[in-house]
Amino acid sequence: MTLDLTDRKSFFSRCRRLVIKVGSAVLTGPRGLNRVMIHRLSDQIAELRERNGDCQIVIVTSGAVASGVRKIGLSERPRTIPHKQATAAVGQGVLMESWEAAFDKYELLVAQLLLTSEDLAHRHRYLNARNTLETLLDWGILPIINENDTVVVEEIKFGDNDQLSAMIAGLIGADLVINLTDTQGLYDCDPRTHASARLIPVVNRVDAKLLACATPQPGAVGTGGMLSKVNAARKCLASGIPMIIAPGKERDILLRLFEGEELGTLFLPRKRLYHGKKLWLANLPKPAGDLILDDGAVLALQKRGKSLLPIGIREIRGTFGVGTPVRCLDQAGNVIGIGLCNYRSTEIDQIKGRHTEEIEGIIGYKHSDEVIHRNNFVLSGEDIEEERAEGGTDA
Ligand SMILES: Nc1ncnc2c1ncn2[C@@H]1O[C@H](COP(=O)(O)OP(=O)(O)O)[C@@H](O)[C@H]1O
Ligand SMILES: N[C@@H](CCC(=O)OP(=O)(O)O)C(=O)O
């Protein structure tokens, strides 16, 4: 797909696979879950599917906690984890039942998927989730996804649905992520505190300057805040997927976007950077451990496109097995990238700082010279732009 905006309408019409994320700020009114909003959005989604016969849509919906608060009759949002989990357990049912009823009038089937970051952190579970989603889309069923708040604890949390939607987009190779929230899009500073804030219509690169525009504090009912949406956009761009932050409460917002109206903030990637395994790695929510590297290894990975050898490893943090994704950090703690280990953490601890010829003598075998092979490694942050889209298989 060409990322040319000269004809906005045709750009949108070429997006056949969509992830639509709807924030609590859109779905929640003073009386809890705003069912009218759910009906309006589902009317538009049904219309989009009708207009573009083969268009496939995945919904990532927030609002379980906000719905639960109202249903239980709590006076404020829960603060402790058990209270949040219990509130979400009540609210998720209400939320799902509303989406289901709204799509029922179009005879559109929906499916609920509740995920934790662990479900996508392990490659086989990631592929499993992908197979389920592909099957549902194949059958013309609308997957409706939320984080599994009821069982989630800090260690296995995506954080928020902005991150989850970016990961789902990578998982299914979406053509576009539409992030619906309660502002017109991304402003050059927080519009709550700066009356002069101006909307940014198009973004090609998420850098430190852009990240500084968005504050992490969400609105009264949100979780992610604008910073999380910009970070999600960064993930999408790294995967070569466009994302738009758009005003979800605006009348006919989805239809108007597809009519080519200039609304929201559109993040446009220059090109698709990663595929298959590398795409999964680039978007991984939580790696299993860290390797601290010396300056030579950092240079080799960042500038020379090399694999990681044991000689450049200074320290290992965490306990992990072979094939596990781990982060590579420089000695100042900056994340260099993420890759799959060829040795387990206890073995790496023994061979760190040593030459490859010494591996066998130390641990009794050697199946590769590299601790992380370049084919199983992606650079992070700014440098990700430099990495070439080397194939990588999907399995
Ligand atoms: N630079 C910015 N541009 C737009 N909105 C911003 C910015 N910085 C902070 N915000 C705030 O982010 C809020 C949206 O985040 P959040 O409450 O998490 O929404 P949602 O529930 O849709 O995820 C907006 O209500 C807005 O006040
Ligand atoms: N999983 C939570 C929503 C978390 C979240 O990311 O909220 P939001 O920032 O409103 O998209 C819920 O359903 O209440």
TrEMBL record:
Domain PUA positions: 289-372
Which of the seven top EC classes does this enzyme belong to?
A: transferase
- So, what pathway does this thing act in? Amino-acid biosynthesis; L-proline biosynthesis; L-glutamate 5-semialdehyde from L-glutamate: step 1/2
PROSITE patterns annotated for this entry?
A: GLUTAMATE_5_KINASE, PUA
Please give an example of a GO cellular component term from this record: cytosol
Q: Which residues bind ATP?
A: 21, 181-182, 223-229
Q: Name one GO molecular function term.
A: glutamate 5-kinase activity
Q: What subcellular compartments does it reside in?
A: Cytoplasm
Task: Give the EC number.
Answer: 2.7.2.11
Q: Which UniProt keywords apply?
A: Amino-acid biosynthesis, ATP-binding, Cytoplasm, Kinase, Nucleotide-binding, Proline biosynthesis, Transferase
Q: Which Pfam families match?
A: AA_kinase (PF00696), PUA (PF01472)
Say what the protein does: Catalyzes the transfer of a phosphate group to glutamate to form L-glutamate 5-phosphate.
Q: What is this protein called?
A: Glutamate 5-kinase
Identify the species of origin: Desulforhabdus amnigena
- Source gene? proB
